[in-house]
Design goal:
Layout (H helix, E strand, L loop, with lengths): L14 E6 L2 E6 L5 H21 L2 E10 L2 H5 L2 E14 L2 E14 L2 H5 L10 E10 H7 L3 H17 L2 H7 L10 E5 L2 E8 L2 E12 L3 E12 L8 E2 L3 E4 L4 E9 L2 E10 L4
């Protein structure tokens, strides 16, 4: 599947940089004048620092700036393509990322004078993210997903059938014990509690690009009855917000794959 939209046919002069671990080694191309040399000297390190400020950690990062010198010198960067391996964003562990940002306006005049790079207006980032099951399990320890899981379980308790509600009444649900497994078209979540084990299963789809849907969820509660059958639950929806548009989402054995667009806002 093609990831990046076709670039404009204006023969952009790219500037690229890569980073392995904590080291950054810029690689310049197409240098033809003072403007090109200024861009190559100033902009890749500034972009790298900005990306580092957005990530908790990254194992490998490569990016390429696309645009003509005269555009970039005005603070307009038509495209930035990037790829990352094992990036961590707000505690979320992303196994692989490939993306292209477009229509980016930055404070280049201030960057040249040694100031940090700032975004001047929102811009879209379109791309592909893969999350392996192992990285998803590490992510479950993040405060962001812990809270989301607590909210999700509270929603389940509210809609559960009365026998389940009775079992949950005095249960302690330690979400930090949650373990996820990803199978073809199905997500499994196991939570060990002092009273027993809770097993949740559901499909995962997207509606209208912005609503995440847990399809046909079921719950097994192995408290007093280890052989209790799975209890079907109604579909559960989560609104992802207007700044997210997911084109496709798939579950295959061991990984979750997402294609979509997110709007990046100044200050993010």
């Amino acid at each position: 599947m093609a990831l990046f939209a076709q670039k404009e046919n204006d023969d952009p002069e790219p500037v690229s940089a890569s980073r392995q671990g904590n080291e950054g080694i810029p690689k310049q191309a197409g240098q033809s004048g003072p403007g090109s040399r200024l861009i190559a000297r100033v902009l890749p390190p500034a972009v790298r620092l900005w990306l580092q400020s957005q990530l908790d950690q990254v194992e490998a990062l490569e990016f390429q700036l696309g645009g003509r010198d005269r555009q970039i010198l005005r603070g307009y960067v038509p495209t930035v393509t990037l790829s990352a391996v094992r990036a961590v964003y707000q505690g979320l562990h992303l196994s692989q990322v490939q993306a292209e940002a477009s229509e980016i306006y930055i404070n280049l005049g201030q960057v040249v004078r040694g100031k940090p790079l700032r975004l001047l207006q929102p811009f879209p980032v379109r791309g592909r993210v893969i999350i392996a099951a192992a990285d998803l399990n590490v992510s479950l320890a993040s405060s962001l997903l812990r809270q989301a899981l607590q909210d999700f379980l509270a929603q389940l308790w509210a809609i559960a059938h009365s026998p389940l509600q009775a079992q949950f009444a005095d249960a302690t649900i330690p979400v930090e014990s949650a373990q996820a497994a990803i199978e073809a078209e199905r997500l499994h979540l196991t939570i060990a509690t002092p009273e027993g084990v809770i097993v949740l299963q559901a499909g995962l789809t997207v509606r209208d690009g912005q609503v995440l849907v847990l399809n046909q969820p079921t719950m097994n509660v192995h408290f007093s009855d280890p052989g209790a059958p799975a209890v079907p639950m109604p579909d559960i929806e989560f609104d992802l917000g207007s700044e997210v548009a997911i084109d496709a989402l798939s579950l295959s054995t061991g990984q979750l794959e997402v294609y979509g667009t997110v709007q990046v806002l100044p200050g993010d």
